[in-house]
User: What shape does this take?
Amino acid sequence: MSQRAIEAAQHLADSAAIARHYAQMGRVYLWLGNFEKAIDYLAASESALPVDTRNEDLAFPKRLRAQIASAEGRYEEAEDLLTDILDVSPITVDDNGRAATLLELGQVAEGRNRPQVAWQRYEEALRLDQQLETIEGEAVTLSHLGEVALATEDYAAARQFFERGLTLAKRVQRIGAIGRCELGLAKIEIAQGNYDVACTLGRQAEQTYDRLGLDQKIRDAKAIVRAALKAS
Assistant: This one.
C-alpha cells in the first residue's frame, strides 16, 4: 500500500500491481471519508491498466468504484459491480477474496433494504470464512449477520451472532467488529428492558469506536447510553 511498493511495481512494469496498490490507497482514503482522494486514486488505478487487462486485474479498481458508489448511496450500481467481481474473486482470506466480496454484497443489500438477500450473502461469506479458518473474517461476518437479525427483531439470533462475533473479534483485535457487536448487544438489552447492561455495553462501544475515530458510531453509542439512563 506504500508509495515505495508502487514505485517498485512501476520499475518492474507490473501494471496489475500498480493498479492494486492505487486501489488499496483509495480504499484507505474512502474509509477516512476523503472522497476526493479516493476518486483520484480510482482514476490512477484504472489508468494503470492496459486495454487488454484480465478481468481478475480489472477487479481492483472496479471494487473501489463499487465501494465509492455504496458510500454515496448508489447501491444498485455497487451491486452490479460487485456481482461482476464475484465471478473472478479468488478463494482467499484477503480483502479481494470471494468471502470479502460476499460481505460487501451483503452490505449493499442492506443498503437496498433487502435483509433476506443480505442474510444469504453473509451466510455464504461465513461458510467460506469457516472453510478458510479465518477468525478475523468470521468475526466480521458474524457481526453483520447480527445486525440483519437485529433489524428484523430476531433478538435470539442476533444475540448469538453478536456474542460469537465479539469473542472472535476480541481474540484477533478486530476493533470495528468489536464495536459493532458491543453496540448491537446494547441495542438488544435496551429493547428487552435490561437498561443497566445496555448502558455498560453502550459505554464499551463508545470507547471502542473512539479508538477508530468514527464519530457517527460514537454518537450512536452515546444515544444508547442516554436512552438506557433515561429508562432506568
